[in-house]
Design brief:
Strand content: 15-25%
Number of strands: 24
Radius of gyration: 25 Å
Distance between the termini: 64 Å
Structural class: alpha+beta
């Protein structure tokens, strides 16, 4: 019924409809985080709740493969004008932390549901233990704010006043929440009108068939790209700096297997479910969109013309053992899952970088830090809570150009709010907001620079949350001779006698006159930095991207009065060895893995998998404590024996029986 040309026409109609929805939401939202930063999604879905149309220019880029089917099925008897909603991560695994409020609306045509419109907004606050509801310090979901299981928010066009009243009573800034929710309902109404227009244009049956054809075409495009890759198995691991507050690293491990036009992503060997809010609530769904965000970026990098829809997920199967950080069980906290998701994307990028090394970039910064301020406006004496700005880093060096500065790769959808708007709405004063010199990884193609931001507060006990802070220890990696990028940092009152470096801490209390400075990580470099044209290095120095010292140290380029000393540069470069290996992780990870070798960590996760879920994080922490002065598999075995001696109540893992048999 739909040839390729007509299918593209329908795809364009669907995208245009989604873009209209996004514009409606952006222009009517109340919070800066939705209308300026654009942490929202909108989409069109088929009758089963599978996404077939998303915007390309507005909003977050996480959910082109999202399906609302489980949420839709939890409500009965839909009528025209109804809108369902939920923000409960465990109810149906559509929302993945409490601030994300998801709404969906049936589109009726000729008396039956022919599609759904849907989307989410990130509410500034949903109540709970901390302002903005998110901190890695939280240990159970009950601390992360009020939750609503799937229910009708709007009944035949009328909002449920009781639900709105419950929300208003339990959140810190109800006007922002309710205003953004109503803006999203407006966006769903826009999408409804556009879908009906498509049904009238193409005819109902042709429209329904065309939607399924769009999903099939997305699947076919993904399978075609997989067939073009070599068959095989590749492994990659990466780390979040901490598994809880000021604690131990958290490892994510991926074993990627490609056979023909299918791929299996096995995350066995990743950390256990954590006693912090870094858990990712996938429900074990083998094609949960939150597990496959990195896949969307890989596929779109390889073919920018692909259709972004749920069909892309069909060739991929994810394995996430229950009770691990990527498949936690209730009531594990999940609010900071976006930090872990950044590492999850890095792991996917690293695996595919080995599959198609000539096509993919180095690691992006991977720390999408969202800064929220709760303070008192001295002009009005009212409490203000607002997202100040995202502090996100650059993209990794590309096969054909430098990484994007400031907000690249998988963080590019988070747009900055002009500081004039922020200072108008929030009583803070910006001291600095720009790019950080020497933060991009050196390479033939340099990694994108980090963002750095500093602001002053004026009221006592101003509370700051900087969620998703990471990469303060493990650097974004370089590839093919490129070097790892600079680290992130957060400092109170920098360059003063009262300076306090906060490391990876994501909350702070500031007093009048205090300045908070935050810097993201940069993007990794790609290719041998000694092969970068000296004129490019000189240009980077002139622009303030690279210092004179780094030009010589990292690139082997000697500059005198701003000009390249060609003879001295050639001599210096000739005396240096060429880098080796596919990845460069930096001295921090190299030092860490000298003690915690990959084999030792594999043994650790194997041991933990044999324990009941509620013992796993405790056992990990105790083994880490006893690894001081030990290394490798033998060190893990010795540490486990000490833990068993101290805690004889700990159940057996099965490892002891196997060792006895051997």
């Amino acid at each position: 019924m739909f040839d390729r040309m007509n299918l593209r026409v329908l795809a364009n109609h669907a995208r245009a409809a989604a873009e209209n929805m996004a514009h409606t939401l952006q222009r009517t939202a109340h919070s800066a985080f939705v209308k300026e930063t654009e942490d929202f999604t909108v989409m069109l879905m088929n009758r089963k709740g599978e996404t077939f149309g998303v915007p390309m220019d507005l909003g977050a880029t996480w959910y082109p493969g999202l399906t609302y089917g489980r949420a839709i099925d939890m409500i009965e008897d839909y009528r025209p004008g109804d809108v369902g909603f939920t923000n409960d991560p465990y109810a149906c695994y559509v929302a993945t932390h409490a601030p994300d409020t998801h709404l969906w609306k049936p589109v009726f045509y000729e008396g039956e549901i022919i599609a759904w419109t849907g989307g989410h907004i990130h509410n500034t606050d949903m109540g709970g233990a901390v302002p903005a509801s998110l901190s890695r310090a939280l240990t159970e979901i009950h601390q992360e704010g009020i939750r609503f299981s799937p229910m009708k928010l709007v009944r035949e066009g009328v909002f449920d006043a009781q639900i709105l009243n419950i929300m208003t009573t339990n959140v810190r800034k109800p006007d922002l929440n309710i205003g953004d929710i109503k803006a999203l309902v407006g966006a769903l109404n826009t999408g409804e009108r556009k879908v009906i227009a498509m049904a009238e244009k193409f005819g109902k049956q042709a429209f329904l068939a065309g939607v399924e054809a769009l999903l099939d075409h997305g699947e076919a495009q993904a399978r075609e790209m997989l067939r073009a890759m070599p068959d095989g198995t590749w492994e990659f691991a990466d780390y979040a700096d901490e598994d809880s507050v000021e604690a131990n690293p958290c490892r994510l491990k991926l074993t990627l297997t490609i056979r023909g036009d299918e791929a299996v992503l096995d995350f066995t060997g990743s950390d256990p479910q954590l006693a912090s809010s870094l858990n990712v609530p996938s429900g074990g769904d083998p094609r949960h969109t939150i597990l496959l965000v990195g896949i969307y970026y890989v596929l779109y990098t390889l073919n920018p013309k692909i259709l972004l829809n749920t069909g892309l997920t069909r060739p991929f199967t994810c394995i996430t053992p229950q009770g691990t950080v990527l498949n936690p069980v209730f009531p594990a906290a999940v609010g900071m899952r976006s930090l872990t998701c950044a590492r999850l994307r890095s792991v996917i990028f690293g695996a595919f970088s080995q599959v198609v090394p000539d096509r993919l970039p180095a690691a992006p910064a991977g720390n999408n830090c969202i800064v929220n301020v709760m303070t008192t406006d001295e002009r009005t004496h009212r409490t203000v809570i607002a997202a100040v700005n995202p502090v996100v880093g650059g993209g990794g060096g590309m096969p054909h150009r430098d990484g994007t500065n400031g907000s690249g790769a998988d963080a590019a959808y988070l747009k900055n709010t002009p500081i004039e708007i922020t200072e108008t709405e929030t009583p803070v004063e910006f001291i600095k907001y720009g790019l950080a010199r020497d933060s991009g990884g050196a390479g033939r193609w340099r990694g994108g620079l980090a963002t750095e931001m500093a602001f002053r507060v004026f009221a006592p006990d101003s509370r700051i949350t900087a969620r998703n802070r990471d990469r303060s220890f493990f650097r974004p990696w370089g590839v093919l001779g490129g070097r790892a990028a600079g680290l992130s940092d957060m400092v109170v009152n920098p360059k003063t006698p009262g300076e306090r470096r906060l490391g990876n801490i994501d909350t702070a209390v500031l007093q009048p006159g205090d300045v908070l400075e935050i810097r993201s990580a940069g993007g990794g470099g790609r290719g041998n930095p000694l092969e970068r044209e000296p004129w490019r290095v000189a240009q980077d120095v002139a622009r303030g991207y690279v210092s004179l010292e780094a030009a010589e140290r990292d690139y082997g380029v000697i500059l005198r009065d701003g000009q390249v000393d060609e003879a001295a540069t050639r001599a210096l470069r000739a005396a240096r060895p060429a880098p080796t290996g596919h990845f460069h992780f930096g001295p921090e990870r190299d030092g860490y893995e000298a003690r915690w070798t990959p084999e030792a960590y594999d043994l650790l996760t194997h041991i933990l998998a044999g324990l009941p879920i509620h013992w796993r994080f405790f056992a990990k922490t105790e083994i880490f404590r006893r690894m001081e002065g030990r290394a490798g598999r033998r060190g893990v075995e010795e540490a486990l024996a000490l833990v068993r001696a101290r805690f004889p109540e700990m159940p057996g893992t099965g490892l002891e029986a196997r060792e006895a048999a051997e």
